[in-house]
């Protein structure tokens, strides 16, 4: 009985630090990926996506890794400027196995049709499954909604 209580106490004591570590790691992966997005850095985007990516969008449906690289490449060549602002206070991050994590929250996208145009911003919901591949967190599954 004492052993079971000790193990339970140790697990409970370890959970907050592990949860904090996971939130820090996923936050850093999110920042890397969307810094590349905001800089229109296609190579950086490629590094943030798992090659097994599945991206579900409430308007355009399901796309995979190759589709997303093509779409982002096309978008980065357009004059319209889009940037993403993280909203980390909205995030909930959960472990989903030894090398998986779930991130649920909202983020703000702001766009200008031309460099001179006024910026328009909207907030959208997302749910992401991150996969730790070769020591780096990568987007594996994404649901983007509320558009």
From TrEMBL:
* DUF4440 domain segment(s): 28-139
What residue range is the signal peptide? Answer: 1-19
Keywords for this protein: Signal
At the top level of its lineage, which domain of life is listed?
A: Bacteria
Q: Is Signal found in the keyword set? A: yes
Query: Could you identify this protein by its name?
Result: Nuclear transport factor 2 family protein
- Source organism per entry reads Zemynaea arenosa
């Amino acid at each position: 009985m004492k052993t079971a209580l000790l193990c339970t106490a140790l697990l409970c004591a370890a959970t907050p630090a592990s949860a904090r570590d996971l939130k820090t790691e996923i936050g850093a992966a999110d920042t890397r990926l969307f810094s590349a997005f905001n800089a229109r850095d296609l190579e950086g985007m490629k590094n943030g996506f798992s090659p097994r990516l599945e991206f579900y969008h409430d308007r355009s449906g399901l796309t995979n890794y190759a589709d997303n690289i093509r779409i982002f490449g096309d978008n980065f060549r357009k004059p319209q400027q889009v940037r993403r602002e993280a909203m980390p206070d909205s995030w909930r991050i959960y472990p989903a196995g030894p090398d998986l994590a779930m991130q649920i929250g909202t983020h703000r996208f702001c766009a200008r049709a031309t460099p001179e145009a006024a910026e328009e911003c909207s907030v959208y919901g997302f749910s992401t499954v991150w996969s730790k591949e070769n020591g780096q967190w990568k987007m594996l599954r994404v649901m983007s909604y509320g558009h």
